[in-house]
Specification:
Distance between the termini: 37 Å
Structural class: mainly alpha
Largest sheet: none
Number of strands: 0
Strand content: under 5%
Shape: globular
Number of helices: 8
Length: about 200
């Protein structure tokens, strides 16, 4: 049961979950064609492309597993993912069209690069905690920004954060310190960038 939370809350799914939440909760009128195009583009760029790249890296012998268990294995995939996020910011979610989402993805970029930087010091941050914590902070900020009731969504995310942390500890994938740093790296960039659009 606990292991399933790690798959449901996989880091690759969190950006798309953020975008879907934004389109569902935002009081702005956004044409359906734009919603469909943006959602499909982000699904391809933030989920399918990283999965394909992971399998290519595995075939090339750059990583042993798509789970990226060692610090050495994580460096290249994280840097590639950071490059994908830059592409998303530049081409899919420009600041003029979707200010809130632009700064969310900018926060994701900072979080990803921070994780990559820590790898050079042999510290393996929990990417699961980083991703779901950043999503939690965005949910809270968006509900404040639009004065909408998102308590249900925030409560679910809070429960999922606890479940993810428990599952990572139960399966000895991370230490409590790695989980705490992951949570901080997810929340802090979003918290710092929130005033730019709140």
């Amino acid at each position: 049961m606990l292991k399933s939370f790690s798959y449901i809350c996989h880091p690759l799914f969190m950006p798309l979950a953020c975008v879907l939440f934004y389109f569902y909760k935002s009081p702005r009128y956004i044409p359906y064609d734009i919603v469909k195009f943006k959602t499909l583009s982000l699904f391809i760029l933030t989920i399918l492309l990283p999965i394909l790249i992971s399998y290519v890296l595995k075939m090339m012998g750059k990583i042993d597993s798509i789970h990226l268990k060692t610090t050495k294995e994580r460096i290249l995939p994280l840097l590639i993912y950071a490059a994908i996020i830059v592409l998303v910011i530049k081409r899919v979610i420009p600041v003029q069209e979707f200010t809130e989402l632009y700064y969310f993805f900018l926060g994701v970029l900072f979080s990803t690069l921070s994780c990559a930087l820590l790898l050079f010091f042999k510290f393996k941050t929990s990417l699961h905690m980083m991703a779901i914590s950043g999503l939690f902070m965005f949910f809270v900020s968006l509900s404040i920004h639009y004065h909408i009731n998102a308590l249900g969504s925030i409560a679910i995310i809070s429960l999922l954060m606890g479940a993810v942390a428990s599952s990572r500890l139960a399966f000895k994938a991370h230490t409590s310190q790695e989980l705490l740093i992951g949570m901080c790296l997810g929340i802090i960039p979003q918290f710092i960038l929130t005033p730019y659009w709140l």
